[in-house]
Design brief:
Elements lengths: L4 H10 L8 H8 L3 H13 L4 E2 L5 E2 L15
Antiparallel strand pairs: 1-2
Helix pairs in contact: 2-3
Length: 74
């Protein structure tokens, strides 16, 4: 699953942030383990929701995000 609760919180913390952030900065801001945030950031990069720039920092390259889905009983 790409969009877990913790990854939503991570994305929310990046929306509207001007500039780029290090994974360590994100982990500190979210009070989470650096390795766990690193793993989540890479999942979000692979999904195209976060970009990594040459110096290793990450950025949410959009003004916002809208998700529309339907959940039905099996």
């Amino acid at each position: 699953m790409v969009l877990t609760q913790k990854r939503w919180v991570l994305l929310k913390s990046m929306v509207g942030v001007k500039g780029h952030m290090t994974i360590r900065d994100l982990a500190r801001e979210l009070s989470r383990d650096v390795k766990a945030v690193h793993r989540d950031v890479h999942t979000l990069i692979n999904a195209g929701l976060v970009d990594r720039i040459e110096d290793g920092r990450v950025v949410f390259p959009y003004d916002g995000i809208h998700v529309d889905f339907e959940l039905n009983a099996v």
